[in-house]
Amino acid sequence: xxxxxxxxxxxxxxxxxxxxxxxxxxxxxxxxxxxxxxxxxxxxxxxxxxxxxxxxxxxxxxxxxxxxxxxxxxxxxxxxxxxxxxxxxxxxxxxxxxxxxxxxxxxxxxxxxxxxxxxxxxxxxxxxxxxxxxxxxxxxxxxxxxxxxxxxxxxxxxxxxxxxxxxxxxxxxxxxxxxxxxxxxxxxxxxxxxxxxxxxxxxxxxxxxxxxxxxxxxxxxxxxxxxxxxxxxxxxxxxxxxxxxxxxxxxxxxxxxxxxxxxxxxxxxxxxxxxxxxxxxxxxxxxxx
Length: 289
What we know:
Layout: H1 18-37, H2 41-50, H3 58-84, H4 86-98, H5 116-122, H6 132-138, H7 152-160, E1 166-170, E2 176-181, E3 187-194, E4 202-207, H8 212-222, H9 230-238, E5 264-271, E6 277-284
Antiparallel strand pairs: 1-2, 2-3, 3-4, 5-6
């Protein structure tokens, strides 16, 4: 996949032009989201090498690593295009000027969610068109924020409310979470919390079952975005409740040429008719993702 086309350069920014200022802030927000997404590039790139037991042969491991490397390269190219285009350079220079002198504006925090993309749409101004899915995920979404170890038990209790077909149990020390997907899935997951001083909590997932389908599911989980967010992980695990029944979003088939179900998952957030963002998970074969 080639990187997105460079967006056209906007007219010069006038301090009295609200629409143009809003467009500039929306463009900065898109850069902010893309850059934040790049924080997980190295973990996603190395994921196949850190879980060799999930691959049936050296060839399969190499293919998975090659796909990760290609995806990482595309993410970096996409960000570079958005960063270097002429219109964005002007916006960045204006932002740099705003951070200096009297009444300077503060920097956006890495975990901060700002709503300028929505504001731009409201006033009828479009951004540069990049990172649409990431922008949707950023609106009112807490799943880009790293989970703290002390919050795990409470998060699990909140997450369980209203969930059907999922049984959960947290051990006494809060370092292991058992997740069971009831029939027809019949999958037992164990989430191990790896806590390292000064670093975000890592969630390592294993599966009691050992069929090829379950190994493929673990490969998809290991390559997930937001690797340090528990809500994101739990939502992803729950999306496998209908893994044996949901066809691939791309090819429309239930089984691929290896007789495997669509085990890859892609998270999307879209507005419903009431204008509220809702999360859904698309099912894809590994070869279609």
